[in-house]
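User: Could you write out the 3D structure of this protein bound to flavin-adenine dinucleotide? I've included everything you need below.
Assistant: Certainly. Input first, then the structure.
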Amino acid sequence: MGASGPNIAIVGAGIGGLTLALALRARGIDAEIHEQAPELREVGAAVALSANATRLLARLGLDEQLTAAGAEPTELIHRHWKDGRRIAAHPVGASYRERFGGPYLGVHRAAFQRILGDAWGSERLHLGTAVSGVTEDPTGAGPTGGDGGRVRLEFADGRSARADLAVGADGVHSAVRRRVTDEDVTVYSGTSGFRGLVPAEAMPSLPDPGAIQFWMGPGAHVLHYPVDSAGTVNFLAVVTGPQRWSEDTWRAEAAPGELLAAFDGWHPAIIEMLSGAPQSARWGLFGQAPLRRWSRGRAVLVGDAAHAMLPHHGQGANQTVEDAVTLADCLAGARAAGGSEAYDVALRRYERLRRVRTRQVQRSSWVTSGLLHLPDGPAAERRDRKLATVPADFGWIHAHDAERAAAAAVAS
Ligand SMILES: Cc1cc2nc3c(=O)[nH]c(=O)nc-3n(C[C@H](O)[C@H](O)[C@H](O)COP(=O)(O)OP(=O)(O)OC[C@H]3O[C@@H](n4cnc5c(N)ncnc54)[C@H](O)[C@@H]3O)c2cc1C
């Protein structure tokens, strides 16, 4: 154990790993990050950050860079797939900021990753270091005894390292999760998506290009939002099917024209949008049954490793940021309390704080998936009436302050 507390090894320098490292540093705790990729690079096109995360990122001093890099949508609009009529519309911008204490921002993933990576720096970031396994000697020194740590990380190149605590921030195919649980929890949703970035000028028919919008139709929907000051739009086009996902990975090559064929007959703005970017691979959309445990001994999970979810509330990355800050607060509480048992308490507290909330978001996103693909008819009309109360219905997602919840739990 170093002078500043336990020696924490974070596996993965994605959104969760980098946010956790920054949140630990802000609390005076050291961490080392091990990332399999040889460089920090973009995964996917863009991400929408909501107030439950932007508020936390602002406390890490990242608000100005994020606001400069991203774009704040003007409204949240739901539209009819064919005639484009506004079914429901709610302001986002300033009124959202005032209500939830942080902005809603669309941002290029590469820009978000760069902002997090620059804030952390290169010193304690080990690139090209794939973790192949985690083992533990529970009788070894823990965070209070500290002679190098009781957790052993094994790397794919044969090297190894020791730590007091290993955090699996290594995404949906987590290697650290294999240490924590043998549950196989991913569930294919029966839907798949295509993603792209399109310049504003390629979509002359698009109404309200500065808004975040859902276009809902039979067996498909399109979500899009602006991601920079140039008006570039990020889209996720989701279709029902294929019935089974037989690929080993979550991405599959799609035949030329497959995406446009699925949206035949849709509003011209959607056709312009989908034609305005090269057709992406097809992403199988998977949810996850809740894990029975998020930690074992001194190995713990954050982000997609613990709770991958469907993207329909745009919450995967936002919940990951919440996890990271919560875990940092719980570990800071343990350091202040002192003693090895304090870390057992901290990990249990972290799980308790995060499991119920992420489960609720996972479940809600799964339900939303079906509602977005209803054919025109009475069920779609019932859904459309319900959209009038979206801000009230989903305020619980955006209003949550994970740091405050953790502080209250640590103090209790
Ligand atoms: C189509 C789609 C759209 C989405 N849109 C949104 C959105 O708008 N808003 C939102 O909030 N979320 C969205 N998400 C979800 C979001 O992308 C994830 O929830 C988020 O990236 C999870 O962060 P993470 O840090 O847990 O994992 P990741 O960001 O996946 O990072 C994991 C890191 O670990 C590294 N790694 C993996 N294995 C190892 C290993 N063995 N050793 C070392 N390093 C390793 C990886 O290289 C990677 O850098 C979307 C997801 C999808 C599929």
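The mean pLDDT is 93.
User: Perfect, thank you.
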